[in-house]
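Chain and backbone:
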Amino acid sequence: MTVHFLTLGDLPLAAHQKVFDRAVSLKARRKRGERDTTLAGRTLVLIFEKASTRTRLSFEAAIGQLGGQAITLSTTDSQLARGESWADTARVISGYADAVMIRTFADARLQEFAKASRVPVINGLTDGGHPVQLLADLFTIRERLGSIEGRAVAWVGDGASNMARSWIEAARIFGFDLRICAPAGYRPQPAELHERAKLVETPAQAVEGADVVTTDVWTSMGQEKESAQRRQAFAEYCVDSALLSKAKRTTIVLHCLPAHRGEEISSDVLDGPQSAAWDEAENRMHVQKALLEKLILAPTT
């Protein structure tokens, strides 16, 4: 049975914990200079419709460091640009690859591809979510704070973004409390919220007592025409030193990057002692190594 990773909910909590445990081992082995060849001879195809730095590099490095190879394909220079369906592309790639990662806009494209694919498909970002980023974020929380369950996480920014949606999904699965602070017009739909994910009125209320403060750019890819409007709407939602002073000294700050310094986060916070953003970025690779092993080598466990 082919297991895809399109949302965090595609894996049970126990499987996520195994992925994190394996990522700990893989990260330690790399730090010691040890090599792994668990995916020798395996091929990962990366399909990009959206621009990427960390997603591309972390997946290419992950499969390469496990002994496999990555083939990177842009939709603009493939037959997808000339009208070949995502389903037909999936059927072809299934004969070449052991797994596929897709970074695209519409979730419907990802789902069409996954339905036709005979090999595991990973969501590398869509308009609806960014689950591989959340794996790195949650792993970083565990690494820094020792546990995820029962923690308080503050999301300050666009509450309707793909990152916010994945944080909302994660709160239910991993058992932490998520406080979402977003201006009117940029909040999640009421049906998306649940007992672990709730709205708060001000950024100060969100960060008070929080274990983790996290944010993302105010203008995501495809929203560039709204940038001026969004800068005005989010002007009071910057994670800066004044806001962070209302949190605990032990609070860590996450940002999935790239950052627009001076907008959603200030440089002194991003580069400051409470920032875990750079470990978070590196952890993309370690967690994705473990995810690739799980999907390719042990898809049913």
